């Protein structure tokens, strides 16, 4: 949204220097604020370092560059694009939306974007914090962090900073610490911070809960469509993919890599997609690494251990997560039953035919592709999220669960309730999604009530740790005896054991 004519530009004084923001949509916004030193030159593939600050007044009316990533002018058939120029190595900035830069000590939501660890930016209009700030009296922070090889390439023994493979995570810790130390200047409460993220951003949120340097920096976590079913590798398992990437770039070691323009690194990432893609699996050329220093266990486990267990959690998934990648994917429409049973065998071994039949029964008239997409949605998103909810419930730790069931009519309804579709409802900002094919055909009358219900639930959770509000059916925490799950659809309802079929299937036989 454009800056409002005649509005007085908000000014804040930080330890690093003065910032001059703008007023948009009735809220103050500060864009492109550096939270760490530019990770360029010798700082490329090093942990995030403190920013030296600036002199005078820094203008903060424009977003900073996005992290280097793949980009196509033609966009994509689902989101229309998930990262736009300008791109630059010097990308470690954040953005703040606030009702006022005063001393009101409002609740704070830090939003971490997803994007398969290779795309996205905190500056995308999809993730604008304006609606939350205006409707919830909340301070919202979004951030950029290093993506793809610049954030996720594990260099092992060749690296001169041993044990630090997750440079993206050091960025996020630095941003979170910046928020904790500076948010009072923007009217926020450093003792009432919620970290929220979707997809890869949900992985990030969970990883932060277990990072030693992030302990005590936030109270709540919102995990949207967390792909906790991903196998997070250790350094040894990363070695082959790192070797492949080095060959694609034509570099021998980290010293050589530091001289390679980021554009060449992005080109190699595109090639790595082809080299690492497997039929029936979500493509992930780069992944976090359990390096023992920044990440000591799978992110899904961090919210069950030590300080992470004390964090309030809301977790959810869309009903048809994997339709995002597979419903329109070339080569999948003609998938055969035999192919899908072979893919099921990777998870269920000797029970694959019976599992195929079990999925068929839940969706009468289903094609092999439908069974495949249900399988991937379960094993990558729904079932691991259920396991976390079950474990939290057994520990007596608060957790609220939801499933998003609203279907988009886009692409003749083939996407269903796909990955990412809940986002415009959560942010209640459909105007910002006008160029995203996934929302095409959704009538305002059909979306208005659901968007209000979800947006207010997120506001409620950020404010006091409970997503229930007067516009919803009673939303009780997920407990072992009831397994209450909020079903977000045209009609919102609280359902006991909503995903019971998936839960029982995996308890029975997944390997």
From TrEMBL:
Residue ranges of domain Carboxylesterase type B in the record: 10-492
Documented EC number(s): 3.1.1.-
Alphabetic keyword roster: Hydrolase
Family to which the UniProt record says this protein belongs: Belongs to the type-B carboxylesterase/lipase family.
The protein, known as: Carboxylic ester hydrolase
Origin species: Streptomyces lutosisoli
């Amino acid at each position: 949204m454009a800056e409002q004519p005649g509005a007085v530009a908000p000014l804040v004084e930080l330890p690093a220097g003065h910032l001059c923001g703008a007023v948009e949509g009735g809220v103050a916004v500060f864009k492109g604020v550096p939270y760490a030193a530019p990770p360029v030159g010798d700082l490329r593939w090093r942990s995030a370092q403190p920013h030296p600050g600036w002199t005078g007044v820094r203008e903060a009316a424009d977003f900073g560059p996005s992290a280097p990533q793949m980009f196509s002018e033609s966009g994509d058939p689902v989101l229309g694009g998930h990262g736009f120029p300008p791109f630059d190595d010097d990308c470690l900035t954040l953005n703040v939306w606030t009702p006022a830069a005063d001393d009101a000590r409002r609740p704070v939501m830090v939003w971490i974007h997803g994007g398969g660890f290779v795309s996205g930016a905190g500056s995308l209009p999809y993730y604008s914090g304006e609606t939350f700030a205006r409707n919830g009296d909340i301070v919202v922070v979004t951030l950029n962090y290093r993506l793809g090889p610049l954030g996720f390439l594990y260099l092992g023994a060749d690296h001169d900073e041993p044990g630090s493979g997750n440079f993206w995570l050091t960025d996020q810790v630095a941003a979170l610490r910046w928020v904790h130390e500076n948010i009072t200047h923007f009217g926020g409460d450093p003792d009432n911070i919620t970290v929220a993220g979707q997809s890869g951003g949900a992985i990030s949120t969970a990883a932060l809960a277990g990072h030693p340097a992030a302990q005590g920096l936030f109270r709540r976590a919102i995990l949207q469509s967390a792909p906790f079913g991903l196998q997070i590798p250790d350094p040894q398992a990363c070695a082959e993919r790192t070797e492949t990437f080095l060959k694609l770039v034509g570099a021998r070691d980290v010293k050589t890599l530091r001289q390679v323009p980021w554009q060449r690194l992005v080109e190699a990432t595109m090639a790595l997609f082809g080299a690492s893609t497997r039929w029936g699996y979500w493509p992930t050329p780069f992944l976090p690494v359990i390096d023992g220093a920044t990440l000591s266990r799978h992110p899904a486990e961090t919210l069950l251990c030590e300080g992470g267990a004390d964090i309030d959690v809301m977790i959810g998934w869309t009903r048809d997560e994997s339709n995002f990648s597979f419903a329109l994917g070339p080569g999948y429409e003609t998938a055969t039953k035999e192919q899908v049973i072979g893919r099921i065998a990777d998870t269920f071994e000797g029970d694959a035919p019976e599992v195929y039949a079990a999925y068929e029964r839940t969706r009468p008239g289903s094609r092999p592709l439908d069974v495949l997409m249900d399988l991937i949605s379960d094993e990558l998103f729904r079932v691991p999220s259920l396991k976390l909810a079950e474990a939290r419930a057994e520990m007596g730790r608060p957790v609220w669960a939801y499933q998003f069931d609203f279907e988009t009519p886009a692409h003749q309804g083939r996407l269903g309730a796909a990955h990412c579709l809940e986002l415009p409802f959560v942010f209640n900002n459909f105007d910002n999604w006008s160029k995203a094919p996934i929302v095409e055909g959704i009538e305002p009358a059909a979306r208005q009530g659901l968007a209000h219900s979800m947006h207010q639930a997120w506001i409620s959770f950020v404010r006091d740790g409970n997503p229930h509000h007067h516009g919803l059916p009673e939303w009780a925490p997920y407990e072992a005896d009831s397994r209450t799950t909020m079903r977000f659809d045209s009609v919102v309802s609280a359902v006991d054991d909503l995903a019971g079929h998936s839960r029982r299937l995996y308890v029975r036989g997944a390997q």
